[in-house]
Amino acid sequence: MIWVRGRARRSLSPSPPEPRLRRLRRTDLSVDTVALARELLGAILVSETDGVRCTMRIVETEAYVPGDPAAHAYRRETARNRSLFLRRGHAYVYLIYGMYCCVNVSSETAGVGAGVLIRSGEPLEGIDAMRARRPRATGRDLCRGPGNLATSLAITRALDGLDLTSRGPLWIAAGTPVHEIGTSVRIGITQAADRLLRFYEHGSPHLSGPRALNR
DNA sequence: TCACTGATCGTCT
DNA sequence: GACGATCAGTGAG
Question: Which nucleotide is the nearest neighbour of A79, by CA and C1'?
Fold first, then answer.
């Protein structure tokens, strides 16, 4: 887990804005997809576009490990999935169903295709901007689901390949502890659908998927 | 709350 | 030409 030093989190109610965010270094990130998927829970995803900072505390991830038939990197490297083959800490942003963007964090060494899908988060800063981008969403739904969170944080294909450990429009900061990590099967896949590679903060009201998966 | 369905288009075979 | 790591709307229980 990647936490702000000396700060514990107990409440599930909306958090106050982080006073100062510490950008994660690449050495903070495990060179292991499953470990990284768990570590990213509680971390802060920061987008700074249109002159507005929007932040979200990650509460749900999925691991797409090397050799995983459900992973976009499974067959071979292509122009689309190239970012998954970058060394850990890079963004893989892709368009799904012609309408929504989803964001992954590359998770292994260079040349190994794997990533962690960011599925849901708890909105922290920039909530007005998020609401402007998704006017019909309620507060708890703003960053619920991979397509929704990308819309709320203005994450587009233009950010594909970005180094999330460097200064830029999208980066990851140290967050706050997750009190209990739940595990389930991944959502929306048909290959390797029985593998327990989805991780979430137990009890969070911001989780996607059916309730039965979040117990 | 869950199941079902249409929307929509880039990517890959 | 088929498919997809999704979402929102609708209707049923």
Answer: B11
Q: What is the CA A103 to C1' C6 distance in angstroms?
A: 13
Is the CB of A91 less than 7 A from some atom of nucleic acid strand C?
no
Whole-angstrom distance, CA of residue A80 vs CA of residue A92: 9
pLDDT in tens, A176-212: 999 899 999 999 998 899 999 999 999 999 999 988 8
Strand B contact with A187 (CB < 7 A): no
Residue at shortest CA–C1' distance from B10: A98
Provide the mean pLDDT of chain A: 91
**CB neighbours of residue A202 within 10 Å:** 14
Is pTM beyond 0.85 here?
yes
Å between CA of A79 and C1' of C11: 42
Per-residue exposure over A114-140, b if at least 16 CB sit within 10 Å of its own CB, e if not: bbbbbbbbbbbbbbebbbebeeebeee
